[in-house]
Amino acid sequence: MTVPTWIVWSVAPPECAEQVSCASVLDAARAWAERQFQRGVLPRDGTEVMARQQGDALPGETAYRLRISIAAAPAFRARMVGLAFEMASPGGRRA
């Protein structure tokens, strides 16, 4: 079974788009937060991120909206806020 690759980015600047290979979109959002922490950027509690699956049949059409919470840095949790529908745009970064 192939593990999907997710493109995860922050809704607010800096966007910091990352490609993350994880089984679920929640794991991908959590991994994104951990990577930001390792780079010296502490995602704030309640940070919203968007995620879409790379290679999606309709890229830029749908994305998931998630919220990051800090359990005990560097441990993060992610929860689903809902689906976000976006218009096709270069890079797929518009919400």
Quick summary of this structure?
With 95 residues, the chain is mainly beta. It has one helix at residues 25-38, and strands at residues 5-10, 18-21, 48-53, 62-72, 75-85.
Number of strands: 5
> What is the straight-line distance between the termini?
31 Å
Global geometry: globular
Give the oligomeric state of the chains in this entry, treating copies of one chain as homo and distinct chains as hetero. Answer: single chain
Beta fraction: 35-45%
Topology as a string of helices (H) and strands (E): EEHEEE
Which blocks of ≥5 consecutive residues have pLDDT under 50?
Answer: none
* Total tally of structural domains: 1
Radius of gyration: 12 Å
Helix/sheet category: mainly beta
Q: Tell me the strand order in the biggest sheet.
A: 2-1-3-4-5
- Number of helices, where a helix is a run of at least 4 consecutive DSSP H or I residues: 1
Q: Can you walk me through this structure?
A:
By secondary structure, the chain is mostly beta strands. It has one domain. Helix content is 15%, strand content 40%. It has one helix and five strands. Strands 2-1-3-4-5 form a five-stranded antiparallel β-sheet, covered by helices on one side. A hairpin with a 2-residue loop joins strand 4 and strand 5. The longest helix has 14 residues. The N and C termini lie far apart (31 Å).
Q: Which key features would you list for this structure?
A:
95 residues; mainly beta; 1 helix; 5 strands; 15% helix; globular
Give the SSE layout.
Elements: E1 5-10, E2 18-21, H1 25-38, E3 48-53, E4 62-72, E5 75-85
